[in-house]
Amino acid sequence: MNIKETIDFCISSAIKLGSEVYNENLDFSDESIQTVKEILDGYHERYLHPENDNGLIKNRVNTYAHVFGIYVGEVLIRKSGGSYAWKDTEYGIVLAKDEKNIINPIGKASKQIVNGVEGGDDIKSFFDVATAIIRGEFPL
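^ that's the sequence the OP posted. Answer follows.
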């Protein structure tokens, strides 16, 4: 699967999961990021208690991180007016403006699933900081 196919698959999967599993509309709005945060919180709880789903979540962290991280990235791309785009790097798929301006929503989604917000990983806070970076408001 090439990067475009991966992006398209993940976006459609996020929207479908949001709608069919969580009864939420992921509409690429800033507000939808709170919904993604809550979904990832649920995955974190499953990660902490793998006995409740026969350990399946531990095998799917990367998949869910890609699905919801790419969704968050797409919201950021729309905010950036196209100045950021997906790039396949040696570290995986990231958002990049240039070599120095890189944002990794997939990595942050993975960390929230594994570490949780209590471990300092929160996709909503990440989104807020990434938005400030895109707007040129951070760092000051």
